[in-house]
Amino acid sequence: MHFEIQYRPTHSLAIAHLEPGESVRAEASAMVSMTRNLDITTDGPMGGRGGLLKSFKRAMLGGETFFTNTFRARGTPGHVTLAPTLSGDMLAVELGPGEPLYIQGSSYVAAPDSVDIDTRWQGLKGFFSGESLFFLEATGSGPVLVNAFGAIEQFDLDGEVIVDTGHLVAFGAGIEYEVTKASRGWIASYLSGEGLVLRMSGRGRIYLQSRNPNEYGQAVGSELPPRQG
Amino acid sequence: MRHEILDAPHFGMLELTLDAGEKVVAESGAMVAMGPAVAVETKMRGGFLAAAKRKLLGGESIFQNTFTASAAGQKLYLAPPVEGDLVMRELAPGETFFLQSGNYLAHVGEQLVLDTQWGGVRSFFGGIGFFMLKVVGPGTLFYASYGAIHEVAVGAGGYTCDTGHIVGFSSGLEYKVRPFAGFKGLFFSGEGLVCDFEGRGALFVQTRKAPSLAAFLHPFRPVQQRGDN
Q: What distance lies between CA A147 and its chain's CA centroid?
């Protein structure tokens, strides 16, 4: 299984190439098109990988769609193409044994079976910011496909940095973080528009997105006619 | 008539240079700018019944604009509503191309035939589906995409595409619409309808789709409380 990413960076499309018998597990709404020789299983409350509780935990905590689809090639090579909702780039991050990647829930797109995806509970603090503060932990070996709203900027941290939660795509092992206020007081933090931030420290790679989906939703969505409450 | 596609693939815009007596038909709302010797005539193309059918079935505007130049070297600029690519397709006499109706931008050629066709499935919950324009040459067709356009050469194995990601396809392909991953998939897997293609031909896929963006923005809409006015 390997990912090929085309039309970068603005309107990226990922092609997951599958050899016979290989599979890829993708976030449910990401499928664009596929060859006809793929068997599809939907992982949700009806069963499937991990069963109800695990899917529910992923959906509620990870900001991930409730369901994932597994595409498996039978007989001949095949492919499935995947795209995110918003404009922006995608990246396949290669995991090695013992090198987990922590992915912001809504940035995860797909991974092969050799990569396990689990959720880390970040605590209730996250609810105050209105931003999702939940990460999926990807372990194993192989590529993990992530998407960004806008461009992806990556840098290697050696020290400390403060990152807005809505701009974080993923980060590697070796980085510790704590959720903190952007300004000194709670009121100033709220007024600054920055809400909660992550104080990240250690050594490892950090992937950022140049736009914040939550800010975009508020800027555009608030101009739309009201919906029924 | 000369044409040039500007600013593709991200923000495609069509520049046409018309001589006296030359005509272009375009989707209403597509005009960006034009020369002083271009006259616009707004018509229900094909008469009231055909226009009403297009409006009801295809969601297209009832009205289309015909631009006619009365002097040489008149410029006309046309643009689609969403960001993405813009391409031209020349159709030989009798050659057929299927275009998703929302992707139509403009055409040249009095003999070009555009007919709306419904592709979908009827279910217990009513009909769901999408609308294709069957375009028959001779003539020149201009169409646009949301995101990039990804071309797939469909061959012996067939191919499947999310209906919202279809831009168009050449003749030689037969298509059948079905809910993704069975009816269970329609509600649970996050994807709606897909099109199965058989035969040989070219399929054009867009890498983003408008309904996903609308679904993303929906939760950000202001909420009208019951009883509020």
A: 7
Say whether B207 and A83 touch across the interface (CB within 8 A). yes
pTM: 0.86
- Complete DSSP assignment for A101-155: EEEEGGGEEEEETTEEEEEE---GGGGGGTS---EEEEEESEEEEEE-SB-EEEE
Residues in A touching B215 (Cβ below 8 Å): 85
Across the interface, do B222 and A226 touch by the CB < 8 Å criterion?
yes
**Is residue A58 over pLDDT 70?**
no
Helix %, strand %, coil % for chain A, to 5? Answer: 20, 50, 30
Candidates B165, B181, B207; nearest CB to A42: B181
pLDDT per residue as tens digits for the range B60-99: 566 789 999 999 999 999 999 999 999 999 999 999 999 9
Flag whether pLDDT at A105 surpasses 70: yes
pLDDT confidence tier of residue A48, bands split at 50, 70 and 90? very low
Rounded Cα–Cα distance for residues A209 and A195 (Å): 17
Beta bridge partners of B182: none
Closest CA to A150 of A171, A137, A122, A169: A169
Average pLDDT, chain A: 84
Structure tokens, A138: 């990807």
Question: How far does B81 lie from chain A, in Å, by closest CA?
Answer: 15
Contact across the interface for B219 and A218, Cβ inside 8 Å: no
pLDDT given for residue A156 in this prediction: 97
Question: Which residue type does B86 have?
Answer: L
- Asked if B33 contacts B75 with a C-beta cutoff of 8 angstroms, the reply is yes
> What pLDDT is attached to residue B72?
97
Whether B152 and chain A come into contact, CB under 8 Å, resolves to: yes
**What mean pLDDT is predicted for residues B9-26?**
96
**A31 and chain B in contact, CB less than 8 A:** yes
Torsion region of A63: left, alpha or beta (phi above 0 gives left; psi -120 to 50 gives alpha) = left
B191 near A CB under 8 A: yes
ipTM of the complex: 0.84
Query: Would you call B210 an interface residue with chain A, using a CB distance cutoff of 8 Å?
Result: no
Q: Is B186 on the interface with A (CB under 8 A)?
A: no
Comparing B21-25, B203-207, B219-223, which segment has the lowest mean pLDDT?
B219-223
Contact status of B222 with chain A (Cβ, < 8 Å): yes
pLDDT of residue B183 exceeding 80? no
